[in-house]
Amino acid sequence: MEKVLIELQQAIENGETQIAMNKTKEALNYGIRTDKIIQTAVNPAFKDLGQKMFDGEIYVTDVLMASRAAHAAMYVMEPILSRSTGTSKGIVAIGTVAGDLHDIGKNLVIMMLQGSGYTVIDLGIDVPAETFIEAVRMHKPHVLALSSLLTTTLPELDSMMEALVEQGLRTQVKVIVGGAPVTAEYAGRIKADAYANDLFEATEAVGDLMKNRIGKYTV
Amino acid sequence: MNQRENFFAMIEGKKPEFIPNSMEVYKSCIAGTCITDSPLMGGVDSFGVNWVATKEGAMPEPNKFLFDEIADWKEHVHFADLDSLGIEAAAAKEMEDFNQNNRNELVVNVFSACGLFERMAAFMGFENALCSLVEDPDSCREFFEALADYRIACHNRFIDAYQPDVLTYFDDLATANGLFMSPKVYREVIKPSHQRIVEAVTSRGVIFSQHTCGKCEEIVGDYVEMGARIWHSAQSMNDLEGIQEKYNDRLIIEGGWDSSGPASYIGASTEDLIEEAKRCANVYGQKGNFILMPTLLNENGNSLFVGDPRLEPMLKAFNEINKL
Predict the structure, then answer these.
(1) B317 to chain A, minimum CA–CA distance in Å?
(2) pLDDT top residue among A75 and B30
(3) Are B133 and A61 an interchain contact pair (Cβ–Cβ within 8 Å)?
(4) ipTM of the complex
(5) Does the structure show a pLDDT above 90 at A85?
(6) Record: contact A68-B56, CB cut-off 8 A
(7) What pTM was estimated for this model as a whole?
(8) Confidence at residue A165, expressed as pLDDT on a 0 to 100 scale
(9) Residue A142 and residue A84: Cα distance in Å, rounded?
(10) Is A200 inside any structural domain?
(11) φ, ψ at B290 (rounded to 5°)
């Protein structure tokens, strides 16, 4: 029974979508619960990939392929996940701030978060502060993830933090910021809760924020 | 030495008199590539891709792709008839105030934007493009070969029209942390066509400058091997000193600027900029194979296009300490 989870983890890490689907079906046929599949195969796969990325052993293509394989595994589990309650690890609302049309980094983080079992609300690109505010009110996400890829849109992050305070929403949601010109120091200055340099850091940081834990990427 | 003589001293492996900077050494030419590759001010390009203008340059309209599968490229990609684009007229207009005296002083550098991988991503999106390199390398190679033919034809037009000294070819292949794809994938799928592009330029007696942002040091050796003499935008997350040491007079490093550091923040003071320029001069400039390329952004966008009052005092201060 455990062998199939190891094979699933391997298939995800290798970016083998069809094998990942087959192994997920096999695991479900063995009666393995979806939360165990996620905790024992999907999450460790991403943890390994994160370490390999950090060590420079793999590249963005490898992460994308792995993410697609993880999505395939989640797709197989979806009918069961949607019937059960409390299986999502939490809600993350994410978007690129106003004036910024970049979506590559944001989309990679979304793929990673979804593959790791989070419910992600993608607010898109060039998102004005009002839309973020509305999303926080409507969806009540645990984490709001803000992306800025341009130095010219960096001040939007600051404005967003101020808008959350002004609207009385700041204590209701944790905020993580990221993007090429963003630094930990800047994140601290605008009083964000966490800063991430890449998609793996973002996933780890979201996990910490969900659990109110002070982690490596907490500001 | 004037800027041109100093530049060619570097290219010839002789000792330059001073460390040049990209804003003063070149006459940069962009009109040709705006027609054939990516419209600077936004709009639909010759392939039918819509570009949207941002403060820091144009980019393909997000989430609007011509196709999803690289195997389908032939159905969707139609190469323009170069005779119909008006490249020569645009070049003539761009060069109308640039006379022989200017040519004796400066280095003419023609830009060629949106290289092989970037064009693929413009057609089908970044994620699809990257996955295609792994999932369907044969179709990718076929696509790149056809695109290389087009790019070579464009470059020949540029060379005839501008008579440039340098052609700078833009293809971003890396994030700040590393390459998008493994060096193996680059070498097997992209490099053969990339190599043809380099050779077609150098065979015309034009210096090839390769632009790649981000941490791409793993394939800089490939660039040198193919014949690139300049690596443009060489950013500080790479081991620039090691690369300078390794390739010495075979490769000029153009960049150095810490584009994620305080000197590139909006609102950075002129003093911050001068400090960064001095750091670059001290750290990278002493070996005679470096061109400073400041990355200076303000509320209106990239200073290259929108200007910036901090530029002049920064360059003045740099030119006081750049003697070798």
Answers:
(1) 24
(2) B30
(3) yes
(4) 0.89
(5) no
(6) no
(7) 0.88
(8) 96
(9) 20
(10) yes
(11) -140, 135
- Select from A29, A56, A83 the last residue of a domain: A83
Closest partner residue to B62 (CB to CB) among A58, A125, A155 is A125
What is the number of structural domains in chain A?
Answer: 2
Q: pLDDT tens, A115-128?
A: 888 999 999 988 99
Work out the minimum CA distance from A84 to partner chain B, whole angstroms: 31
CA distance B216 to chain A (A): 12
DSSP secondary structure, B89-136, as one string: HHHHHHTTT--HHHHHHSEEEEEE-S-HHHHHHHHH-HHHHHHHHHH-
Q: Do A152 and B175 touch (CB under 8 A)?
A: no
Residue A158 lies in a domain: yes
Q: B144, B116 in Cβ contact below 8 A?
A: yes
pLDDT at B197 over 70: yes
> In CATH, what class is B3-321?
alpha beta
Q: Which of A104, A111, A181 sits opposite B260 (nearest CB)?
A: A181
Residues of A with CB under 8 A from a CB of B: 15, 53, 56, 58-62, 64-65, 68, 99-104, 107-108, 111, 125, 150-152, 154-155, 180-181, 183, 197-198
Token couple for B118: 């970037």
B315-323: average pLDDT:
96
Q: Domain ends where: A37, A63, A83?
A: A83
Q: What distance in Å separates the CA atoms of residue B244 and residue B248, rounded to the nearest whole number?
A: 5
Q: What is the mean pLDDT of residues B41-56?
A: 90
Domain boundaries, chain B: 3-321
Report the alpha-carbon distance of residue A62 to residue B312 in Å, rounded.
45
Question: In this predicted model, what pLDDT tens digit does every residue of B34-47 receive, in sequence order?
Answer: 999 999 889 999 99
